[in-house]
Amino acid sequence: AAKNAGKNGYRFYEASMQETLIHKLNMERSLRAAVSNEEFLLYFQPIVYLETGLVSGFEALLRWNNPQQGLVAPGEFIPLVEESGLIVPIGKWVMRAACAFARKLTNMAYADTYVAVNVSVKQLASEDFVPMVRAALHEAAVPPTMLELEITETILMNSECLTTNIAKLKELKDMGVRIALDDFGTGYSSLTYLKQLPIDVVKIDKAFVDDLTEGGKNGPLMGSIIALAHNLGLKVVAEGVETEEQRKLLREWQCDSIQGYLISRPVPEAEVLKVCMKSKDS
Ligand code: C2E
Ligand code: MG
Ligand code: MG
Ligand code: MG
């Protein structure tokens, strides 16, 4: 019986492996067609100054409107998109769409805000990344200062061509594009690296913000990270702020801006203005 179970177990394992592979191939094929089928869209989540509550910028977050599955979140397809190299054309679409949105912001008297775009390291490492960004800005007639690129900290530090990647970021920063280190505090987060990177902003990860409680041990740690960033001339954004208590504590630790469900969820473009009006009133 044990032998049978083993055999069945093995068969089952083999079948599910095959199913996973087929699912992956199908998904890759759908994703390959998704750009030309115009199935991608951007949601925007406002980032607000802690002191004034005014909007400082918007993070562009990719959504895939799959005809079969409906709206799919990036966590479910970005890994595959990176693995298959599709991140390069899709990332280009994101950059152009984000710049088009920035163009609209200037027309709506939000010219002093910025649009933050997530960039995967594979995309950064692609040969024509810098010219692609420059062209997207030019095409939309958007000043580089309205664009922020978010790079995930640990992924950048572990990347193969770290020196070239840093040089590219520096080139963009010299053009006036802002660079943010995303998901800060989740990885091995060597603080000493911070001053070697051409960055303007540190985005503290939600996981770190979640642990903030009145009198909790993470408060002072958060405080020293924020102080250190400020000493290096960097701005600090806290991600995933959900409660009034977190907002209060972050203000005490002199965080510059916050982003999270407390202010607004990511919303489609048509709803962005409504959200801005609301955050101005509160
Ligand atoms: P991220 O860049 O760290 O983006 C923040 C994520 O946290 C977003 O998830 C956002 O919806 C979510 N979030 C914001 N505030 C709150 C909150 O208060 N509570 C909770 N529970 N969640 C909050 P989303 O949109 O699912 O994106 C997930 C990740 O996918 C992003 O993490 C980013 O790494 C990646 N991503 C999104 N768009 C793109 C893109 O265009 N290109 C690339 N390469 N990656 C992208
Ligand atoms: Mg981000
Ligand atoms: Mg993040
Ligand atoms: Mg994240």
From TrEMBL:
Subcellular localization, as worded in the UniProt entry: Cell membrane
Domain EAL intervals: 24-280
Identification of the protein by name: PAS domain S-box-containing protein/diguanylate cyclase (GGDEF) domain-containing protein
The species this protein was found in: Sporomusa malonica
Residue numbers of the full-length protein present here: 593 to 874 of 874
